[in-house]
């Protein structure tokens, strides 16, 4: 739901545990149509799934695999008003990353929510806004434009308080780093940092609200990753120092490295650890033969550096 300022600044979970996080959501495991109750971390503003507010699972566009989540044009009753539940975190640092696709000339929208309701939804219709309206191609603003995104206290403001560029009709990454200790969040759009911003309302990482802001709204979401700490820490492996193959894999995944690999952890699409090894050798092999077909995240750690790669089996 979009944020409107007047005199005051006016989260969601099914049974989403306080320490819950998910390693990868690429939408491949879901049935097409309304998300409904297929995943605990996807909810709606009202907390009532299967009512038309849900994100729609489609096979029209996808960054990986064949499916993604769609938030289409607004103006319906009800409008799509989707909550990505981030678990009401009140300490530590957290990073959420997702791929976004906005067709040429269309609009995209989300905002960052604070405390979510324990029984689902944003609560009493008001929500807890920890950010302004974050709008891509804001057609309600006088100076909004395709390829330009911005932060708007009111969506009808002529200019954003800060802005960023994004590619139209192409997949690009959004990465948001939350520092709960210092009550700041920083967004990276298509690899470019937006200056860090303060939490606007409370001290909680509650969720992200993806909203069908108007009739021009249409955007897709794919490959959602949510972890404690930072993604791609400062000393990530260089591309020429680290490779995995084959991908897709049948049984044995080869890890090519120039130094000894400390830990290999494999996550399924729900963030569950399904395989873990501590090879302690250069270029180890990982036996994935016991895993079922599907998408996995393989996290390789060498010393203080780690890298996570999506692997299809």
UniProtKB/TrEMBL annotation:
<keyword id="KW-0732">Signal</keyword>
<feature type="domain" description="Secretion system C-terminal sorting">
    <location>
        <begin position="244"/>
        <end position="312"/>
    </location>
</feature>
<protein>
    <submittedName>
        <fullName>Putative secreted protein (Por secretion system target)</fullName>
    </submittedName>
</protein>
<dbReference type="Pfam" id="PF18962">
    <property type="entry name" value="Por_Secre_tail"/>
</dbReference>
<dbReference type="InterPro" id="IPR026444">
    <property type="entry name" value="Secre_tail"/>
</dbReference>
<feature type="signal peptide">
    <location>
        <begin position="1"/>
        <end position="20"/>
    </location>
</feature>
């Amino acid at each position: 739901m979009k944020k409107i300022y007047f005199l005051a600044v006016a989260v969601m979970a099914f049974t989403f545990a306080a320490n819950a996080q998910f390693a990868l959501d690429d939408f491949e495991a879901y049935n097409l149509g309304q998300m409904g109750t297929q995943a605990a971390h996807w909810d709606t503003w009202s907390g009532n799934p299967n009512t038309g507010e849900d994100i729609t699972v489609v096979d029209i566009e996808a960054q990986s695999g064949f499916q993604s989540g769609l938030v289409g044009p607004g103006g319906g009753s009800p409008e799509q008003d989707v909550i990505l539940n981030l678990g009401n975190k009140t300490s530590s640092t957290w990073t959420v990353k997702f791929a976004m696709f906005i067709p040429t000339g269309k609009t995209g929208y989300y905002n960052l929510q604070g405390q979510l309701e324990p029984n689902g939804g944003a609560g009493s219709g008001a929500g807890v806004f920890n950010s302004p309206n974050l709008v891509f191609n804001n057609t309600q603003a006088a100076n909004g434009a395709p390829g330009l995104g911005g932060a708007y206290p009111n969506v009808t403001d002529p200019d954003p308080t800060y802005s960023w560029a994004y590619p139209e009709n192409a997949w690009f990454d959004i990465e948001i780093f939350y520092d709960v200790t210092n009550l700041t969040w920083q967004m990276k759009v298509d690899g470019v940092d937006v200056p860090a911003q303060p939490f606007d309302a409370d001290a909680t990482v509650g969720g992200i609200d993806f909203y069908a802001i108007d009739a021009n709204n249409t955007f897709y979401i794919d490959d959602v990753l949510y972890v404690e700490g930072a993604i791609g820490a400062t000393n990530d492996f260089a591309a020429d120092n680290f490779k995995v193959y084959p991908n897709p894999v049948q049984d044995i995944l080869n890890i090519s490295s120039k130094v000894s690999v400390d830990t290999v952890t494999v996550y399924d699409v729900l963030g569950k650890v399904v395989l873990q090894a501590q090879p302690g050798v250069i270029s180890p092999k990982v036996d994935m033969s016991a895993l079922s077909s599907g998408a996995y995240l393989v996290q390789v750690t060498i010393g203080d550096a780690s890298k996570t790669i999506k692997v299809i089996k």
